[in-house]
Specification:
By secondary structure, the protein is α/β, with parallel strands linked by helices. The chain has helices spanning about 60-70, 90-100, 115-125, 145-155, 160-180, 185-195, 195-205, 210; strands spanning about 10-15, 25-30, 45-50, 75-80, 110-115, 135-140.
């Protein structure tokens, strides 16, 4: 049943922490053709799913966990983050606060993968007991980007490093599309000129207004 059911996703836009720049975040509620998911005012548990580096709601591992949640009678919603700053947790804070307002009677749980797992744990460290989450799971969270890249170069097939570089460009391009506070031409040039994941990430952060003026400055993965 984790592979056979066809999933549908209902997109919803909510304000980012920097909504003054007209920035928004997208969440995607999962359902099957036979079952419509209630997105608010329901006591059923809400499982907030955070995908990995450069992925989205259509990747197989995300669809499998969505199906598993729906079969258990829970609601599954994927946060499709776009910000290429993995030290910035205020978007996740805004998403979970929105969930709490819309579903005040429901327990809220987060499951996050890889880079998403890193974001989740950074958020929990910042929020502590103020989080609306009743449980959180980080799956294969990436905690140190330079170490991870070096480990991949040393111990993995070269093709995996190339894949990581490509996923970094996917992340950067999503940021360029969604962030209204940046110089898109300048940031696009940085992406074109960068062939290494680490250098792209660091140079991209250096030119982000939100990073230069945030509490996450100089904080790596």
């Amino acid at each position: 049943f984790l592979w056979d059911d066809r999933l549908e996703f209902e997109e919803e836009e909510i304000p980012s922490f920097d909504a003054a720049e007209n920035n928004t975040q997208k969440i995607h509620w999962a359902s099957t053709p036979d079952t419509k998911t209630e997105t608010k005012d329901s006591p059923l548990p809400v499982i907030v799913i955070v995908h990995g580096f450069g992925d989205n709601q259509y990747h197989p591992y995300i669809q499998r966990i969505c199906r598993s949640c729906l079969h258990s009678g829970w609601r599954a919603v994927v946060w499709s983050y776009w910000r290429f700053d993995f030290g910035e947790t205020r978007d996740l804070e805004a998403v979970l606060a929105f969930m709490q307002r819309r579903n005040s009677l429901a327990p809220i749980i987060a499951i996050a993968y890889s880079a998403g797992g890193h974001l989740l744990l950074k958020y929990l460290r910042a929020m502590g007991k103020k989080t609306p989450l009743v449980a959180a799971i980080s799956c294969s969270g990436c905690f140190d980007l330079p170490y991870t890249i070096e480990n991949i170069k040393t111990n993995e097939n070269d093709s995996y490093h190339l894949y990581l570089n490509q996923q970094a460009k996917v992340c950067a391009q999503r940021h360029i599309i969604n962030d209204n506070a940046i110089d898109r031409f300048q940031m696009a040039r940085i992406v074109r000129e960068s062939s290494d994941c680490q250098r792209l990430h660091d140079k991209f952060l250096h030119h982000l207004p939100s990073h230069r003026h945030s509490h996450t400055k100089n904080v790596s993965w």
